[in-house]
Design a protein that fits this description.
Layout: H1 10-21, E1 46-51, E2 56-60, E3 66-67, H2 72-82, H3 105-110, H4 121-132, H5 138-150, E4 160-161, H6 163-170, H7 174-185, H8 193-204, E5 206-208, H9 210-216, H10 218-221, E6 225-226, E7 229-230, H11 234-247, H12 253-259, E8 264-266, E9 271-276, E10 280-285, H13 296-309
Antiparallel strand pairs: 1-2, 1-10, 3-5, 4-5, 6-7, 8-9, 9-10
């Protein structure tokens, strides 16, 4: 573990991480079906660390907003669990790695409408549906939570929903609608399929910076205690972390655990949120993706940071 006595200050480490890992060539790809994700320059790169002691360190493009996409699933899950008084959510979605594409229709049909985990698209739709039973505007509820945790409560600043991007993404959501109708047919979706998909797409279209994301995710490093008080129990926070470790990186969760050794959740917008229990939350963003849908430079930077600091759950 990095200490003040034997390692350089964290701010200097992050600055060197940016120098070492900022992309220098157009490697990787961006999602073909989400046009607005091709807008950021290929060499965009930011990293931020929010510590449980209340400090925030950042470097590179850490203040530029990016589309959080599937990272939103972590926060929707937390909100759904916090509202799950009857404890029924885990009867509707499992906690196992999928082993197939994140938007697989085949697996959902074979397994009779029970998604493998809350971070594949079908599982996220069930979680969104579950939250909508208590809060019909689930996307707005998640957005407000993110604003509160990031310390940005004014409507003129902080995290926001890119409504134009959401509209464009919704127009290309045929597969998500198909998943929602499958879930509906199996009795595992209670709200109208179209409404669930719209909320899901809007939460994925939230724009945040690395600094804001690191601060928003800090409650998971603090045993469920957020900026304004308890969000989840320590047990629930721990379990979200375990699902992030095993299921948070699409089909590369094992490789990420091997290289980085920390719970993480990626999004095809190029962001990755990582939790160091008891220590900090980290967000890195670089838009070019590997073949599994995870940020190329972001994953390499997190592996480097883990090696330099000793941060790991192993």
């Amino acid at each position: 573990m990095m200490t003040a006595l034997d390692s350089p200050p964290l701010g200097l480490v992050l600055a060197d991480i940016v120098r070492s890992h900022r992309p220098r060539s157009v490697a990787g790809s961006v999602p073909a079906g989400i046009p607005h994700l091709s807008s950021p320059p290929f060499n965009s790169f930011g990293i931020a660390v929010a510590t449980t002691a209340g400090d925030v360190f950042s470097a590179g493009d850490a203040s530029l907003p990016f589309s959080i996409q599937s990272i939103s699933k972590v926060f929707t899950l937390a909100m759904a669990l916090s509202a799950d008084g009857a404890g029924t959510l885990w009867s509707r979605v499992l906690r196992e790695p999928s082993g197939t594409s994140f938007n697989s229709l085949v697996q959902l049909e074979v397994e009779h409408g029970i998604p493998r985990n809350p971070f594949i698209n079908s599982g996220a739709l069930v979680v969104t549906d579950h939250l909508m039973e208590r809060v019909p505007d689930a996307a707005g509820h998640v957005l407000q939570f993110l604003r509160d945790q990031a310390g940005q409560r004014s409507s003129g600043q902080g995290p926001f929903i890119d409504e134009a991007a959401a509209k464009s993404e919704l127009a290309n959501s045929s597969r998500n609608l198909a998943l929602a109708h499958f879930l509906k047919d199996f009795g595992n979706l209670r709200r109208p399929a179209e409404a669930v998909v719209e909320n899901y797409v809007r939460q994925c279209s939230i724009m945040m910076s690395c600094v804001e994301m690191a601060k928003a995710g800090l409650f998971l490093a603090r045993g469920g205690h957020g900026a304004n008080g308890p969000v989840l129990s320590r047990s629930e926070a721990k379990r979200i972390g375990s699902v992030m470790l095993t299921c948070g990186m699409y089909d590369a969760a094992g490789e990420f655990a091997y290289r980085v050794g920390l719970p993480g959740k990626s999004g095809v917008g190029g962001g990755i949120l990582v939790i160091v229990p008891g220590e900090c939350a980290i967000c890195v963003w670089s838009p070019r993706l590997d073949s599994k849908g995870n940020s190329l430079a972001g994953t390499a930077a997190l592996a480097d940071l883990s090696d330099r600091t000793g941060w790991s759950v192993f």
